[in-house]
Amino acid sequence: MDQTFRRITDLVSQQLPGECPPDFSAEADLRDAGLDSMGIVALLVALESEFHIEFPPDQITLATFNSVGSLYQVVQRCLASEESAIQAAGGIQEPTN
Asked: Where are the alpha helices (DSSP H) in the chain?
């Protein structure tokens, strides 16, 4: 399990009612575990903030928020997209005043 996956799991567990079971798998259904619509919105905000990404509108679906595994895939794609954008811009640029 890599660090990104662990961070996502931690953020998910903060949105679930009660304790996250120790045998909680990457494919466990988050709605069955108690993630509701308000939890999805809070999780979306937390993920975007934690990873400094923005979910594409077409990825804000129930399927994306079905499991930690599906969230991991979308976060990885967003991170790769952000990295590509930085490289295309010639690296991180300092703001000018």
From this structure: 3-15, 37-51, 68-88
Residue 6 CA neighbour count, 13 Å, CB half: 3
Please report, for the domain that includes residue 53, its CATH number. Answer: 1.10.1200.10
Residue 93 lies in a domain: no
pTM for this entry: 0.84
**Mean pLDDT across the stretch 29-36?**
93
Q: Above 60 in pLDDT, residue 92? A: no
**Residue 32 burial (C-beta neighbours within 10 Å; 0-12, 13-18, 19+):** exposed
